[in-house]
C-alpha cells in the first residue's frame, strides 16, 4: 500500500466526508513532505519516511490530543526537523502533545511543561524554563575522589567546602566518590581552573571536569541526584 492509499483509507475509517478526503490527503502529503514518494509502497520506505507516514496518520481526523513516544529518535536531521515543524504547527493550532522523550531538541522545541520520571517516581514537575532559570547559567564543576575511603571522602568534602566559600557556589549533587558544584556565571574561567588545579594537588583529588550548564546536563544530573 502506498502512503497516499494509507492516508485515504484511514480518513474513511475515521469518518471524514468522502468529498473532503482527496483534498485532505493531498494537503497531508505536502505537509509531511512525501510528494515525491506518494505513490511508492510504504514497505520500500526507510525509517525517516515511515516515521513521516506515522505522524501523518496521527493527524487524520484533527485530534486535539497526541500521544508521542520518542517521535524523532533515529531520524536524520532533515526528517527530524520536518517532524518537529509539523508538531509545532499542531501546538500552534491548540493541539495538546503528551510525549515521552530523551531528546533535548524535542524538549526545547515543543515542551512548555516537563515531568522527569525516575523508576516511576516524579523527580521534577514544572517547565523547562524553571529548570534553566535555576541552573541555566554558569558551569558545573565536578570533583572526583580517588577512592571511597573515609579519608578520601573527607578531602573531597573539604574541597567542596572551599569551592562553596570561594565562589559562592552551590552543591548540585554529592556522594562518596564525586561532588558536582554549580559555579556562578561571573566567575572567570581562568580563576576557576586555577583554583581547581590547586585543590586537585592539595586535596588529593583524582581529576575534575568543567562543563557548561545546558538543559540536558541539568536533567542528567537531576536523575543522578535522585538515584
UniProtKB/TrEMBL annotation:
Q: Name one GO molecular function term.
A: ABC-type transporter activity
Extract the Gene3D superfamilies matched here.
P-loop containing nucleotide triphosphate hydrolases
Q: Which InterPro entries match?
A: ABCA (IPR026082), P-loop_NTPase (IPR027417)
Q: Name one GO cellular component term.
A: membrane
Under PANTHER family, the record lists:
ATP-BINDING CASSETTE TRANSPORTER SUBFAMILY A ABCA
Name of the protein in its database record: ABC transporter domain-containing protein
**UniProt gene name:** 106078820
Amino acid at each position: 500500500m502506498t502512503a497516499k492509499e494509507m492516508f485515504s483509507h484511514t480518513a474513511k475509517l475515521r469518518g471524514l466526508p468522502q468529498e473532503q478526503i482527496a483534498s485532505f490527503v493531498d494537503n497531508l502529503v505536502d505537509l509531511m513532505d512525501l510528494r515525491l514518494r506518494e505513490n511508492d509502497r510504504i514497505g520500500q520506505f526507510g525509517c525517516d519516511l515511515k516515521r513521516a507516514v506515522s505522524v501523518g496518520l496521527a493527524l487524520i481526523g484533527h485530534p486535539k490530543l497526541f500521544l508521542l513516544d520518542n517521535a524523532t529518535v533515529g531520524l536524520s536531521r532533515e526528517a527530524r526537523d520536518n517532524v518537529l515543524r509539523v508538531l509545532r504547527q499542531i501546538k500552534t493550532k491548540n493541539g495538546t502533545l503528551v510525549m515521552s522523550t530523551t531528546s533535548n531538541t524535542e524538549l526545547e522545541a515543543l515542551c512548555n511543561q516537563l515531568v522527569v520520571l525516575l523508576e516511576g517516581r516524579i523527580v521534577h514537575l514544572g517547565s523547562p524554563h524553571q529548570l534553566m532559570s535555576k541552573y541555566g547559567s554558569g558551569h558545573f564543576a565536578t570533583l572526583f575522589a580517588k577512592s571511597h575511603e573515609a579519608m578520601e571522602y573527607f578531602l573531597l568534602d573539604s574541597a567542596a567546602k572551599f569551592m562553596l566559600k570561594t565562589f559562592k557556589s552551590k552543591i548540585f549533587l554529592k556522594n562518596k566518590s564525586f561532588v558536582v558544584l554549580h559555579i556562578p556565571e561571573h566567575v572567570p574561567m581562568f580563576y576557576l581552573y586555577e583554583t581547581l588545579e590547586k585543590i586537585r594537588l592539595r586535596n588529593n583529588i583524582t581529576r575534575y571536569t568543567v562543563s557548561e550548564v545546558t538543559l540536558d546536563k541539568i536533567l542528567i544530573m537531576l536523575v543522578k541526584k535522585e538515584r
